[in-house]
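REQUEST ID: PR-0412
SUBMITTED BY: lab tech R.K.
PRIORITY: routine
TASK: structure prediction, single protein chain
INPUT:
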Amino acid sequence: MSEHRAEISWNKDTQSFSYADYNREHKWQFDNEVTLAASASPFFMGNSSCIDPEEAFVASLSSCHMLTFLAICARKRIIVEKYCDSAVGFLRKNAQSRLAITRLILRPIVLFNNGTVPAPDEIRRLHDMAHEECFLTNSVNSEVIII
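STATUS: complete
OUTPUT:
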């Protein structure tokens, strides 16, 4: 249906190329010419002022869930005024003893228009539907929990 591209570029800017010395900073450039400064996670000697792949992964899944939720609400004529999430991902060893983001917790807070506020059980169903339809959730093996 669609293709999504990113250009990733890195250049060595250290004398040594030992694990402890080489630079982790690099750039992500997207089709729309947006460029982001990226690095390894600070847990892996990266630069904390840059976006790291793990936090980008968590943000991408949270964003995909939100956009899917908004689309479902729009189709059902449920008006959403504001949506916030405080998502967290956990890097742990998976069943194969490899490091992976094994679990993500999404904590969406949704403010609806006064005339279309769904009952709590309907809000839960909307999030369940968004979870089932989210492209990125369907692309990963991580456990995704919405609370």
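NOTES: The two ends are 31 Å apart (CA to CA).
REVIEWED BY: pending
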